[in-house]
Amino acid sequence: MILFLRQKGIAQFFLVAVTVLFLGGSVLLLDSSFNVLDGLFGRTGNLGEETVLTIGETKITRRAFEDYVSNVTRYYEQQNQSGTLPDRETVENQVKDQLVRMEVLRQNATLDDSEVDRHIQSDSNWLSTYNLYANSGNATIYRDQIRGQLSESMLRDKIQALELVTDLEIENEYRRQNHKAKLKFIQFRNSDYNNTVEVADEEAKAHFEQNKEKYAKKDQINLKFVKISPQDFVSDDDVRTYYDDNRNRYSEVTSVKASHILKKIPEGANEKKKLEIKTEAVELLATIRKAIDENKQFADLAKEYSEGPSKTNGGSLGYFERGKMVPSFERACFDELEVGEVSDLVESEFGYHIIKLEDKKSEPQTFIEVKKDIKDKLVKITGSSEAKQIAEELEFDVDMDGYDGAIENELYAKLKLTVEETGFFSQDDSTIPNVGSKWTYGDLLEKVFDVEVGSVDLIEVKKSSGSRELEAYFIATVIDKKIEGIPSFENVKDKVVDDLKSEKAKELALKDANKLFNQLTESESLDDLVSRYIAPEGLSRQNLEVKESGLFSLSATSDYISNMGSSKEAMFSAFQMKSNEIRGPIQGSSDCFIIQLTEIDEPDIGKLKNEIREQLKVRKSLLQSKKNSTYNNWYSAMRQQIEVKDERL
């Protein structure tokens, strides 16, 4: 059962908000004896390090906390491989916040194991994944993930019943959403002015001295290494030979023939009615199975019991390909049932189906179609074991003969191994020089900073995906290490200069915009103004143009204006201006603007009052907003009850 904390007579419901930053959408519920990283990464045993963070009754070790930070950073890199990543302090604060959320949930909402198991068994996808976890001895971890998802869902349902939306609130929200503006604008991009900026060494040094903490560096190491990939042990000839020897294994089901009995859900049925129909469908399934055991034909049963249009044909749907049926029905026919087998209940938007698979048609797959799958399989089976054997032998040879001497050994000649160096890098860097992304080589980054300077170590790196298969082995030596601290000016000079250039470019863009705006005379338009623009000396962009935004409404959560970019000042100014009024300069996130209000759309209140659909649309969005606000208030109150002891240095 779910237990709820009550305070001041109002149910205090907690929505679990452990995001994909930790588990890609999965959630772990913890008890006080369960180490958070054991659950997250499937590890057992004592990590053997000091506790640095105590949240309520949950203790987190230093290694555990660092693993969390690493995992969150990898997530950001996967989602935003070409963009700017958050700094370490931001990630650490996010990790700490999510750990507090997990503890709040642990203290305030629980779900019985029996309820969790019942839900797992009712969902074929959950059950399949559960079996995979169980086979590897991690069934408890997956059950706790599902427990979190179910708790969140149930708590959300409870909160929905607590919030109401008044007609006045609906009208006010409708006015906000439909009160829209459109701007013309002249845009001055900060980046256009970068090349006109000069930064003297003395100026850069002074900026560095005033902002030293901004340029502080974590521990850095320089790594010498040899990389051994399991892919190198599987050739195209190996893949082709395997395909030729196992052609009979590689065929694809192209179409199936199936019949079904449908227990239909009427359109517009409420939840009570749907539950009644499901109960009747369960009883019907038992009746059908009993009849089949008594040698009755499925086609005759379909004619008697099915509520679908195919009942007159004995439920037969004939042959069909993928994509022709709803997903649940297709999955049962193509992926789950064997020919002649009768399914359990399969739910779809139409109702509950009892399916009999009559036939499957297959076509052989070409070598090109299955080449990658075969190579992945061979890499996993033979490539990994051979790579491990070579890596272990190379580690010994490097220890005895050094890197250059070891790779000249005939044993490694065919592999064409090379010795490389990374140059200095830190654990915060998004890329390991000459190796690759921290997302791919996170294991290397996590382990190598614990290696002693000068020692030769064999480091196994696994894929960051859920499979955790082998990515590569590294024979590695830390040849130099710089201890955490503030670097010399020369080591960060390029970064300091870039920062100063950006600041100066922003100032120049604003100055240029202000100069043009001051030339504006009464009754002039932006088109008149832009025609008099003269670019500053040295600017590669000589002309400006007048652009137009899309229609936008005032938003408290976003400052983005379509076709224009982000500018909170421009958004709020638009709804205070008169038609055709010009204002400037207006600051944006990476630009400044001169703007002119060209269109203002007033909301049609009559439309709101006359169209029920419009009322429901606004009510739904407003209700969700109020629920989120209520949740945030409740969560803040509950969070204050959690004692947090942070002993990180």
Account of the 3D structure:
This protein is α+β, with helices and mostly antiparallel strands. It folds into 4 domains: 5-164 and 629-646, Triger factor/SurA peptide-binding fold (Orthogonal Bundle); 180-216 and 493-601, no CATH class; 220-234 and 372-482; 251-364, Chitinase A, domain 3 (Roll). It contains 20 helices and 22 strands. Strands 5, 16, 17, 20 and 21 form a 5-stranded antiparallel sheet that branches. A 4-stranded antiparallel sheet has the order 11-6-15-14. Strand 1 and strand 2 (10-12) form a beta hairpin. Helix 3 crosses helix 4 (88-108), helix 5 crosses helix 6 and helix 8 packs across helix 20 (612-639). The radius of gyration is 32 Å and the shape is globular. The model is unreliable at 1-48 (pLDDT under 50).
Give the helices and strands, then pairings.
Elements: E1 5-7, E2 10-12, H1 20-23, H2 36-41, E3 51-55, E4 58-61, H3 62-79, H4 88-108, H5 113-122, H6 124-135, H7 139-160, H8 167-178, E5 180-189, H9 201-210, E6 220-228, H10 236-245, E7 251-264, H11 271-293, H12 298-305, E8 316-320, H13 327-336, E9 346-348, E10 351-364, H14 367-407, E11 420-426, E12 431-432, E13 436-437, H15 442-448, E14 457-462, E15 470-482, H16 493-517, H17 526-530, E16 546-548, E17 552-553, E18 560-561, E19 565-566, H18 568-574, E20 582-587, E21 591-601, H19 605-610, H20 612-639, E22 644-646
Antiparallel strand pairs: 1-2, 3-4, 3-22, 5-16, 5-17, 5-21, 6-11, 6-15, 7-8, 7-10, 9-10, 12-13, 14-15, 18-19, 20-21
Helix pairs in contact: 3-4, 5-6, 5-7, 6-7, 8-20, 9-16, 10-14
